[in-house]
Amino acid sequence: QDIKPRLIRFGYGLNEQSNQGRAVKFFAEQVEKASGGKMRVRAIGAAALGPDTQMQQALIGGAQEMMVGSTATLVGITKEMALWDTPFLFNSAKEADVILDGPIGEKVKARLQDKGLVGLVYWENGFRNLTNSKRPVTKLEDLDGVKLRVMQNNVFLDSFRSLGANAVPMPFSELFSALETKAVDGQENPFNTILSSKFHEVQKYLTVTNHVYSPWIITVSKKWWDGLSPAEQKILMDAARASRDFERKDTREEAGRALAELKAKGMQINELSPAEAARMRDRLTRVNASIGVNVGMDLWNETQAALTKLRAAK
Amino acid sequence: MSPTPTPNLSSPAPTPLALRLAQWAVAACLAVMSLAVFLNVVLRYGFGSGIAASEELSRLLFVWMVFIGAAAAYPRGEHMAFTSLVAMLEGRPLALRLATALIRLLVLLAAVLLGWGAWQQVAVGWGSHSAVMGYPLALLPLPALLCAAVIGACALVELLRGTPLDLGHAADIE
Amino acid sequence: MEFLGLTPEAQAFVVFCVGMLVLMGIGMNMGLALVLTGAGMAWVLGFWDAQLLAQNLVGGVDSFALLAVPFFVLAGELMNAGGISRRIIDMAQAWVGHVRGGLGYVAIGAAVLMASMSGSALADTAALATILLPMMRDRGYPMHTSGGLLASGGIIAPIIPPSMPFVIYGVTTNTSISALFLSGIVPGLIMGAGLILAWRWVLRGIDLPAEPKVPLAERLKITGRAFWALMMPLIIIGGMKSGVFTPTEAAVVAAMYALVVALFIHREMRLPELLPVLVNAGRTTAVVMFLCAGAQVASYMITLADLPGVLTGWLGGLVESPRLLMAVMMIVLVLIGTALDLTPTILIFAPVMLPIAVKAGIDPVYFGLMFVLNGAIGLITPPVGTVLNVVAGVGRMPLAQVVRGVNPFLLTYALILALFVVFPQIVTAPLVWLR
Ligand code: NA
Ligand code: NA
Fold first, then answer.
1. Cα-flanking dihedrals φ and ψ of residue A268, to 5°?
2. Chains near B, with 3+ CB pairs < 8 A?
3. Do A150 and A157 meet the contact criterion of CB atoms below 8 Å apart?
């Protein structure tokens, strides 16, 4: 028989009740159903198997089978992953879906293979948006002097410095108390994270900037994957695709609910006008150029061309 | 399956020179860590900015400091251990010798397992890089590998020589 | 894997208990004993891979929050080397030394003040005992009671912020370190007050010489000399509360401050003397952190085996009544504390016990305070009481003598602990206000 009994240790960072946890559970059920209960997914959330970087090393070494995590944490392994960190790359979730699931997304994923990882599908973490306690951000100049926490990642640091903010690198674990005591004025994350981390309790203004789209990616240990039969690989791949559709739908619904709830809890919300978004994008030319160099100009140009084509087709 | 006994670091009883080098390394790590973190406080409070590398660098140095320090502490018997029970065997030399040998065998086993795991992670880690500074992630398990090698070598030598157990040491700080 | 009809999780629980009792019992290096226990649990859980051991060993110390530990140790070393501790004790003596049994009150006052600057019970006890025990011996104080008092005063250090055990607890259980720090202020002061009452009671009927009364002008002068030392807690707590820095950063600021005071204000230290201080702080930290590293290997497997869940199932009805559960857990911790030091107690048992407490609706910060307080008391309970050893060592007296002398204070602390179990508000109410 082509399908052997297997235990799959599947790690993820958020808790069971999150959109990530729900989608992992969905994936696990799909795998067990399709394999007639032979392949069992042991889903372990809340970073109990360690932070993303630790799980990645465990996958590469073959000490763990699967995980889902941020593409940003894979940049140190496959530099092409930095493409997804590009500010204002996608204008809509639709664009993100087309590019990520299309040939460009495939090409970036394929680069993981040399490093001992197999990328299955991209999930959605979401568009990141800006909150702060100083003032509503309606135009580029409003960012001036805002002490903004960013991820410890050079692209984000450079981007927000270029936009005029005082970008401060800080681990997420210290963020809430830093916002509470006004050690920093603002931060940027998807709606779901803003709500689940209770940032509305310590932040007044929320600007819908959609300044960067953060994907998640399901990865498999290549050492382990190569030992699977084609039938087993197909089961995992099919389940991953199904989970992708489930996850994106679920996450988008939740983001909508989160935004409404943030409003209900008293956050003052405004949208960034397309004109201001364009001004910000212009300010980021230098940052984008360096991302292009890092991920390779061919990939960069191909992506831009695909996006132009996509936007023209509308 | 001996995991990389590195020639210069695995000498069984560190000579005063090896110990001095370890101490200097520990002091240097601590000094740089302190400066990096302090500088970030000053930059953030005073100038609304910060060095992205500060956190990553200080964590890396911390890991090195701990494992260098832990390796240096082993031959001197400075690690925490609960010796009250085994100390009761002091009147019965044979039983004490057996218990001592058993402890060393277990230490050796732990060191071999850790060294073997760390060796694989070092091999895996050269291809991955940290987010900000871009150092190879192999630099994280590397000190654990060296530490396991030193402790394992020391335990082996103690086992072969039948060095008596050091019963005097308990926790240094709480 | 089938064995005795037990599920893998139950087998892991057996491995955990046997590993702890046997490996630690025979006196193996605790960090490595935890690694082997973790390896055994991984084996029965079907998670065996040597890489996981190494990864978690490193992951256990690869944490920014834990950096507070070496920084606070460094600050403590610099306080002692730079004359800060000395000035605090001088000041306490100027103000209360002339009362009957005054040196005892000096010890309590200095212990509380030093607790607000240092996070280590051992360092504080050593500093207090080195200076005060010889004085108490000269004045004819009963040595066993004096030693017991100094040991009891020393364990206030991990309760009043800053505190290394709170840092380790916070990192181990994902609890806010700032909140834990603030939760310790009132209980720490209550401990000091309890010691004052106990000391009065112990001294009844004993005739002790009073110290000469220091004139007010002289008192103010001595207090002035301690000014820079007294600024330290203000900087640490004020800075943390106002958001200038996080607990980790507070630790490094404290160390830098102590260095500047030692080098340029007190001028009791020269720059070359910094090297041995750094070496000492680094070495002590390495030993404690190696234990943290090993504990991470075991706690990774504890999480996978869901031991807290298994135990919650067994405890059943207890989870329904938080106070009773709290009382039971406190008794268990007292028993553990007799044999195990504070850090290993936190590293091994906090990840198992906290989820049970949370399930019963107990506030995690309150639980953290109670856990650390109980573990700190374990530092002065025989047979293994590290702080008792320090006092016996510094005072060149037999351990049994200190053990005898510590009893009345131990009883006081037990009453305080029981008080906090029955009235958790004593801990939680001021916390709301302090936040
Ligand atoms: Na303290
Ligand atoms: Na004890």
1. -90, 115
2. A, C
3. yes
CA–CA dist B63, B75 (Å, integer): 20
CA distance B113 to B94: 29
**What single string gives the DSSP state of each residue in C316-354?**
GGGGG-HHHHHHHHHHHHHHHHHHS-HHHHHHHHHHHHH
Pairing of strands A66-70, A205-221: antiparallel
State the DSSP string of C21-60: IIIIHTT-BHHHHHHHHHHHHHHHHT---HHHHHHHHHHT
By DSSP bridging, strand A166-169 and strand A205-221 are: unpaired
Query: A117-132 and A205-221: which strand pairing?
Result: antiparallel
- Cα Rg of chain C, angstroms: 22
pTM of this structure:
0.90
Quote the ipTM score.
Answer: 0.90
C311 CB-contact burial (10 Å; exposed 0-12 / middle 13-18 / buried 19+): middle
pLDDT range class, residue C224, cuts 50, 70, 90 = very high
| Residue to test with chain B: of C245, C287, C336, C390, most B Cβ within 10 A | C287
Fill in the DSSP letter of residue C234. Answer: I
Residue A159 contacts residue A209 (beta carbons within 8 Å): no
State both tokens at C80: 């002692």
| Residue B43, domain member (yes or no) | yes
Q: Which residue has the tokens 């041995």?
A: C276
Q: Alpha carbon A207 to chain centroid distance?
A: 19
- Is residue B131 within 8 angstroms of chain C, CB to CB? no
- Give the domain extent around B41: 17-161
- Mutation for A interface: C47, C61, C167, C253, most A CBs within 10 A: C47
Q: Quickly count: other Cβ atoms within 10 Å of residue C47's Cβ.
A: 23
Asked if the structure places residue B126 within a domain, the reply is: yes
C-alpha distance from B151 to closest chain A C-alpha (Å): 24
Q: Are residues C27 and C17 in contact, defined by beta-carbon separation less than 8 angstroms?
A: no
Q: Give the pLDDT confidence score for residue C239 in this predicted structure.
A: 80
**Does C187 have pLDDT greater than 50?**
yes
Close Cβ partners of C155 (under 8 Å, ≥ 6 residues apart): C121, C125, C376, C377, C379, C380, C387
How many angstroms separate the Cα of C252 from the Cα of each of A177, B31, C65, C78? 18, 11, 12, 12
The list of chain A residues with pLDDT below 70 reads 1, 314
Residues B14, B28: Cα–Cα separation, whole Å: 19
Q: Which residue of A has its CA nearest to B52?
A: A169
Work out the number of other CB atoms within 10 angstroms of the CB of residue B167.
Answer: 16
Quote the pLDDT of residue C235: 85
Give the pLDDT score at B9. 38
Amino acid at A188: E
Q: Choose among B37, B40, B81: nearest Cβ to C30.
A: B81
Q: Where are the domains of chain C?
A: 8-434
Distance CA B107, CA C21 (A): 16
Q: Is residue C156 a contact partner of residue C111, using CB atoms and an 8 Å limit?
A: yes
Closest CA to C237 of C229, C228, C245: C245
Give dist(CA B166, CA B155) in Å, integer.
Answer: 13
**Residue-averaged pLDDT of chain C:** 90
Q: Which two tokens stand for residue C411?
A: 């009883």
Which residues, 6+ apart, have CB-to-CB distance to C186 below 8 Å? C426, C427, C430
SS (H, E, C) C113-168: HHHCCCCCHHHHHHHHHHHHHHHHHHCCCCHHHHHHHHHHHHCCCCCCCCCHHHHH
Place of tokens 């002061």: C189
How many domains are contained in chain B? Answer: 1
Q: What was the pLDDT predicted at A19?
A: 94
Backbone angles phi, psi at A147, to 5 degrees: -80, 105
